[in-house]
Amino acid sequence: MTADGALARVIRSSAGRTASAPGEVCELCAAPVPEEHRHLYDTAEAEVRCACGPCSVLFTGSGAGGGHFRIVPRRRVRLPRVDTAALGVPVGLVFFVPRDDGTVTAQGPSPAGAMRWEVDAAAWRRLADRFPQLATVEPEVEALLVNTVQEFDHHWIVPIDDCFRMVATVRREWRGLSGGGRVWPAVQEFFAELTERS
To answer: What is the predicted pLDDT for the residue at 5?
Structure first.
């Protein structure tokens, strides 16, 4: 399954979120999971998977678990303004994901899902030299999330599942060619909730 498949699942999950979504289960052992539960990132499928407490413990800690599953961290760190112009990505709402192989991808939301660009790895390293916190971003499972649209100025280190939720929010709320009147208030609400959860 592709990242778009993971995105579709996040959209379904966030659209029908209730006190406890009926039938929501751990995607490793099929045990029921509560509304607030951990996620694993499947690097082979570029997909976020729900995990129950016992299964998430298998992938927590240094050297734990293995294979292509990684526990998604929970830290959210607001950064001072990071000048990402040198990374050459022409959008104001985007997240940057360093990979295990040293490459970096940028992804931005669109009505059709995430748009993706390859970022010059040397440019990312130079940026990390200027902003040392970027060197702490855990490959594959954390990202630099930037929003400079409509005079916003948000720069965060976030878990990858937050990025998927942001893309799902834009896709769900977008109307017409320009996005309509619902998408940017929804993005603003997403970042307000991010601030509350940090």
So the answer is: 53
Any idea what the Cα angle at residue 195 is, between residues 49 and 103, rounded to 5°? 50
Q: Is 152 exposed, middle or buried (0-12, 13-18, 19+ CB in 10 A)?
A: middle
Please tell me the distance from the alpha carbon of residue 118 to that of residue 136, in angstroms, as a whole number: 20
**Global pTM value:** 0.82
Provide, rounded to the nearest whole percent, the portion of the chain with pLDDT above 70: 85
Q: Which residue in 41, 138, 149, 139 sits closest to 90, CA to CA?
A: 149
Residues 6+ apart with CB under 8 A from 120: 87, 88, 104
Tell the residue number behind the tokens 């009926």, with chain if given.
22
Sheet holding 69-71, edge to edge: 47-51, 38-42, 69-71
